[in-house]
Amino acid sequence: MATLTSRFNKIFTKNNVYLMIGLLAIFIGSWTIMYLIPSVFVGLFDTLLGNAILLLTVLLTAKYNLKVAIALAIIFVIFYQFSHLSKR
After folding, report:
1. Is residue 72 exposed (0-12), middle (13-18) or buried (19+ Cβ within 10 Å)?
2. Where are the domains of the chain?
3. Is 76:53 a contact under the CB 8 Å cutoff?
4. 41 class by beta-carbon count within 10 Å (0-12 exposed, 13-18 middle, 19+ buried)
5. In sequence order, what are the residues at sequence separation of 6 or more whose Cβ sits closer than 8 angstroms to the Cβ of residue 44?
6. CA geometry: angle at 67 spanning 26 and 31, to 5°?
7. Does pTM top 0.90 for this prediction?
8. What digits encode the pLDDT tens for the residues 49-73?
9. What whole-number distance in Å separates Cα of residue 54 and Cα of residue 57?
10. Burial, 76: exposed, middle or buried (Cβ in 10 Å; 0-12, 13-18, 19+)?
């Protein structure tokens, strides 16, 4: 039981809790936008300006953290494939 408590305390440190709350807020915000205003995602993946915004987001992220930028690029490619799935 003590090892479970120590693992719990290692996972839920103050910095990790802020990170989890931030990620949850981003996911909820993205979900809300995707279902309330779906044209925002269509505009991001179907226009030149939207693609430039996504590319700049990945490049600026890569400046600070390469692993996160790679994950973000993979997520954008998956969203791109889903956005063009209905057009086939």
Report:
1. middle
2. 1-36, 37-88
3. no
4. middle
5. 50, 51, 53, 54
6. 20
7. no
8. 888 888 898 998 888 889 989 999 9
9. 5
10. middle
Name residues whose C-beta falls within 8 Å of residue 41's C-beta, 6 or more positions apart in sequence.
33, 34, 79, 83
What distances in angstroms separate CA 77 from CA 8, 15, 22, 30, one per listed residue?
34, 30, 23, 16
Helix (H), strand (E) counts: the chain: 5, 0
Q: Is 62 exposed, middle or buried (0-12, 13-18, 19+ CB in 10 A)?
A: middle
CA distance 37 to 31: 10
